[in-house]
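The pair is listed for reference:
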Amino acid sequence: MYIILGIIAVIIIALIGLYNNFVKLRVRTDEAWADIDVQLKRRYDLIPNLVETVKGYASHERATLQEVLEARSKATQMNIDVANVTPAQMSQFAELQAGITGALGKLMAIAESYPDLKANENFLELQRELTDTENKIQAARRFYNTNVRDLNIAIQSFPGNVVASMFGFGTREFFELEGDSIEREPVKVSF
């Protein structure tokens, strides 16, 4: 009788441990996504200031400036519920983020053609902040993907998969930018 009670107690403790591990991994994944969200908001907030600074020096580059603002506008309109995101939604979100990156690359390439702009203190500070933000976005994305990996492994491994299905824990989608697996080409700008 004590052996049976002991086995039941061990099983219950193991289930509690697995459940708590899933909760911990899910919370870490949600927190990692929140970090991405914060950095993307910072990026979205910097873009209008950068465009306004460049506009004063490169007024005839309106198409590129408009492209940056349109990419920002499209990206800010899409909200992701990371707990229920589909692969198609994550792909669309990644595509929008890649659009901003490409448009900003063109903007920076154009800025290289204006020595006065490159020396402008406001532009240099905005460029530093944007570079810092881009680095933070990449770090937050790596952190998120690491947490998604850990959560997905725990959910798909035995006996975790049994407990996960019992309590409704589901896998999450990775945040991969388009072209992550291929080498990026430099931005081409022609005048």
In short: Confidence is low (pLDDT under 50) at residues 180-191. The helical segments are 2-57, 62-77, 87-111, 115-119, 121-156, 160-167. Residues 6 and 12 are 10 Å apart (CA to CA).
